[in-house]
Design brief:
Structural class: alpha+beta
Number of helices: 13
CATH class of the largest domain: Alpha Beta
CATH architecture of the largest domain: 2-Layer Sandwich
Radius of gyration: 24 Å
Bound molecules: adenosine-5'-triphosphate, magnesium ion
CATH topology of the largest domain: Ribosomal Protein S5, domain 2
Shape: globular
Number of strands: 20
């Protein structure tokens, strides 16, 4: 005989948050990503991040953004409370966050302190959560902006703590998450420091893990400068500019020459409507595009930005929003593969029938040492102060030239069709390799498939 069915009961808010936290905050790097995204959404110009012991004992993210009104501090820590959407439209999402889950999730599995001073407010306020229990707001001192401090992450969920990797590996994952967001937001200054006791004994500032000043250049140049800063000159000197458009999908970015390949797929950065994503479709398309150019086991280096109307991609697939779902996956894949293949072929390469290391050794492209491309992309993620970006975009010329392919436009020539290269001369603002110094120079650049 079976017994009576167990009674159904509603879980407490704290228990629900702890369960949600399992998905939102997988490891310290996910907490850092959530906090930095909040800072970006708040219109920060500078974001400072400090971590200790791989983020396990401390994660602190400070920004100079719009802040949180004193009366809203407690609400910010409640589940499904957000200032970013009103719930009527889940398609046109213009911010990184929209689920109202990140802070309550973190508060459920760590000791969280939120301190903020809203723009125009006379004073700051602070509120604490200890393993789900929200305290009373208190007055605090700080300038405009927000600081979130997380101590003892996963102290409330020891099982999760056991799955974390070494401090070193977790710190690396944090740096990677920060780099991805820094690539997406060149106009924001970032700093990431390791303040573990061994680096900050005696109250020092710790060890700098990453630092990027705000790029002032035009939108596209700013992005290029930031990528150069993050990936280093080697990438800059060995990458092709990609610009392609098909059926309302737009692909821009940079694809490393096959000679720049890596032993693992570690240096591949994808952004969909400005949001960093890890997407199997995109990484598969990238692999497919290089299949004829790389031996097995080698992986291309690439930074690709895909932009489309928001209704063609769903970002609300997973709580971390790192996965997306495209309405027309075949079109996306086709665009990525054809644009990259054309660019590679244009650079003077042919797909080798048998790819060998020897063939790779002979892979010495003649690349115009020239300027970077100047066509922009359209950011879907907007935040306070994004007016500048709009102006920069408006000032940009419409997409030029290219050839038609399956109803689309791919800005790259075919292998051997050098005659397709058009040379344009136009003034450009160059901030390349000379941080902080602007110069205007006039350059000639073969338009499609340029290297930079
Ligand atoms: N750094 C910040 N600056 C200003 N406001 C913030 C900041 N961090 C959080 N907030 C406020 O707290 C709210 C809750 O943040 P939380 O991250 O939990 O949710 P969200 O960002 O709205 O959605 P998601 O769960 O998708 O991240 C935000 O909607 C925002 O109003
Ligand atoms: Mg958020």
């Amino acid at each position: 005989m079976m017994g009576e069915p167990a009674r159904i009961r509603r879980l407490s808010e704290a228990a629900a948050n702890r369960i949600a936290a399992g998905e939102v905050v997988e490891r310290p790097a996910s907490a850092v990503k959530e906090l930095v995204e909040n800072a970006i959404d708040a219109g920060a110009a500078r974001i400072e991040i400090a971590v200790a012991d791989g983020g396990k004992t401390l994660i602190r993210v400070s920004d100079d953004g719009i802040g949180i009104a004193a009366g809203d501090l407690a609400l910010a820590l409640e589940r499904h409370a957000t200032s970013k959407i009103d719930g009527s439209d889940l398609v046109n999402i213009l911010s990184y966050g929209f689920r109202g889950e990140a802070l309550p999730s973190m508060g459920a599995v760590a000791r969280l302190t939120l301190t903020s001073r809203a723009a125009g407010a006379e004073a700051a306020g602070s509120i604490e959560v200890r393993a789900g229990a929200i305290g009373q707001p208190r007055p605090a001192a700080r300038g405009q902006g927000t600081t979130v401090e997380l101590r003892d992450l996963f102290c409330a969920t020891p099982a999760r703590l056991k799955f974390l990797r070494t401090d070193r590996a977790e710190t690396q994952a944090i740096a990677e998450a920060v780099r991805r967001l820094a690539m997406a937001e060149p106009g924001i200054a970032f700093s990431l420091r390791d303040v573990s006791a061994r680096y900050s004994d005696g109250g020092g500032e710790g060890r700098s893990l990453f630092r990027a000043e705000a790029e002032q250049g035009e939108l596209f140049d700013g992005r290029l400068a930031r990528i150069d800063h993050i990936l280093g000159g080697e990438f800059a000197a060995n990458a092709l500019a990609i610009e392609a458009e098909r059926d309302g999908l737009r692909l821009t970015g940079f694809a490393g020459l096959p000679t720049l390949s890596r032993g693992a797929a570690v240096a591949q950065f994808f952004f969909v409507n400005g949001r960093p994503v890890r997407d199997k479709l995109l990484s598969g398309a990238l692999r497919g595009a290089y299949a004829d150019f790389l031996p097995r086991g080698r992986h291309p280096v690439a930074v690709l930005f895909l932009d489309c109307a928001p209704e063609r991609v769903d970002v609300n697939v997973h709580p971390t929003k790192a996965e997306v779902r495209f309405r027309e996956p075949g079109v996306v894949r086709g665009l990525v593969v054809s644009a990259l293949r054309h660019a590679l072929a244009e650079a003077g390469h042919r797909a080798a029938t048998t790819v060998s290391t020897a063939a790779l050794g002979a892979f010495r492209p003649e690349l115009p040492a020239g300027p970077r491309p100047g066509q922009g992309w359209r950011p879907q993620i907007q935040r306070p102060g994004a007016g500048q970006i709009g102006a920069a975009l408006a000032a940009q010329a419409p997409l030029e030239g290219g050839f038609e392919e399956s109803g689309g436009r791919v800005q790259a020539g075919r292998a051997g069709s050098r005659s397709r290269l058009r040379t344009t001369t136009r003034p450009r603002t160059c901030r390349w390799g000379s941080p902080g110094r602007s110069c205007t120079r006039t350059t000639s650049s073969p338009r499609p498939g340029r290297a930079w």
